[in-house]
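Below is a filled-in request sheet from our internal design queue. Each sheet records the structural input a requester submitted and the sequence that came back. We keep these sheets so that new team members can see what a complete request looks like end to end.

REQUESTER: design group, bay 2
PRIORITY: normal
MODE: inverse folding
CHAIN LENGTH: 225
BACKBONE (tokenized):
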């Protein structure tokens, strides 16, 4: 049996002085090497949950543990995120004046690697997502699907233990969405990387090995395929 990577213990998250309940007692674990999808309609709390898993926010009640240690006990969460977690967002968040190769190298400045090593690693990552011919292209000159694949390559730059993707296909057409998810699935299979994807689209959720369904801030089903 795989080791538990993340443990979510009765997590609640409220806003507006408690008047808005985004999460109402989420409770589950994510094992190392799992590919899980959190699926539900807009406003159900799934993106809030992903932000909590990524240490971008804190629960109002309950706690989240990473390898058995509460995130609240980690003294430098910025360093923890930089070295442990890769993020893929719906809106890509690429710098438009930097090439694909340069964008992928940005997180690497947290690591003790030379310029040549950063360039080599970034080149390999872009080739791994099918962009070996687009290394020196600027994001405005790339399609939405290509930009998201650059973002995926960037999320892997520091060899994270966990990849979190928030609606990674939300700005893409169906063909590019399928291609992006196939790349994520391939990365999971080849690297054994733990992945959690948030989506409202069941076609996207079905790429995962496990589907956690959330509605009105509560987990209403949790199924492994």
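RETURNED SEQUENCE:
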């Amino acid at each position: 049996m795989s080791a538990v990577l993340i443990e979510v213990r009765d997590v609640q998250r409220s806003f507006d002085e408690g008047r808005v309940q985004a999460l109402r007692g989420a409770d589950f674990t994510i094992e190392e090497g799992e590919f899980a999808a959190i699926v539900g309609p807009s406003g159900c709390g799934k993106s809030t949950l992903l932000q909590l898993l990524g240490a971008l926010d804190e629960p109002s009640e309950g706690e989240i543990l990473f390898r058995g240690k509460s995130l609240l006990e980690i003294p430098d969460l910025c360093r923890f995120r930089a070295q442990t977690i890769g993020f893929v967002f719906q809106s890509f968040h690429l710098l438009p004046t930097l090439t694909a190769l340069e964008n992928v190298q940005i997180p690497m400045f947290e690591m003790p690697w030379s310029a040549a090593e950063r360039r080599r690693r970034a080149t390999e990552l872009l080739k791994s997502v099918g962009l070996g011919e687009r290394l020196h292209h600027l994001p405005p000159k790339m399609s939405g699907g290509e930009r998201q694949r650059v973002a995926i390559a960037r999320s892997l730059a520091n060899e994270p233990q966990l990849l979190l993707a928030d609606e990674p296909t939300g700005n893409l057409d169906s063909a590019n969405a399928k291609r992006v998810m196939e790349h994520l699935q391939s990365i999971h299979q080849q690297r054994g990387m733990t992945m959690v994807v948030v989506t409202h689209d069941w076609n996207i959720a079905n790429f995962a090995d496990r589907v956690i369904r959330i509605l009105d801030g509560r987990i209403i089903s949790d199924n492994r395929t």
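SHEET NOTES:
- Residues 174-191 form the longest helix (18 residues).
- Residues 137 and 163 are 25 Å apart (CA to CA).
FILED BY: M.R.
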